[in-house]
Amino acid sequence: MQRRRLGRNGPEVSALGLGCMGMSEFYGAADEAESVATIHAALDQGLDFLDTADMYGPYTNERLVGRAIGGRRDDVVLATKFGFVRDPNDPTKREVNGRPERVREACEASLERLGIDTIDLFYLHRADARVPIEDTVGAMSDLVRAGKVRWIGLSEVGPETLARACSVHPIAALQSEYSLWTRDPEDGVLDACRRLGVGFVPYSPLGRGFLSGAIRSPDDFEPDDYRRRSPRFQGENFASNLALVDTVTAIARSKDATPAQLALAWVLAQGDDIVPIPGTKRRRYLNENIAALAIELTADDLCAIESAFPRAAVQGSRYPAAMMALTGR
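and the corresponding structure tokens:
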């Protein structure tokens, strides 16, 4: 398994991680036994970077991951996140809480659910507009000193917030959405990470599964699938974006690869400091993703992909307006 280091002083991890969110919700029903088998298959192949969060479920995904890594803690670099607080009566409603007291409470609760003594990488899921980032990161750094956390990270923040956070404590990684159809981090975030010595962890590097080419209609989604509410998967946006995916599929065939593998290879080719975490809950897709590590894209390949899938051609926002407002702070 290829290895990459997150940031200047962060952990060394497998070049590809595993996003575990979909094993618990958002993307239709999941088979817990198959999800656990998928995590075990990842670890068996040297893919050791697992990603979860307290809000997934909520709370159930951390428990699932904790059960899956029981007896294999030394094989895992485990990342979890805090910051979102969901309404127990309506899980679709959520707020962001980055207050120092919440940092400590969330850490203790995650440790208990995961069944571990130390979190390897603890992310702030979204910046809290009501709390200075220095206060939140200061409380996170206290957890490092207390031995509860090894490294800290942020998710979906802008360059200025990242720099302010780094002035308080080293940030090992910034996690944000990044793929062929979500290029926002190229607007200063990637440059800031490299300037500040912060690793970059793209989530949804397969465009929430769309770049796999397997999704041909909004009717392919189960009734409770999050993507039914996403602007990019609706109406004319869906049809326009599907045409872009078809061009990627054609290029993938020329490389004897699947479109998902080509999309992952493209993200991996954007820098050795980038560690994507495609999510899957099935072993067959895990194996397909891992095979993307063997694909080498030439400069000509990258130019062809750029021409076939230009950034400006993507239609629709990646989140509904309320969620978009929480990004880039």
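(Above: one complete record from the training split.) The first helix runs from residue 32 to 44.
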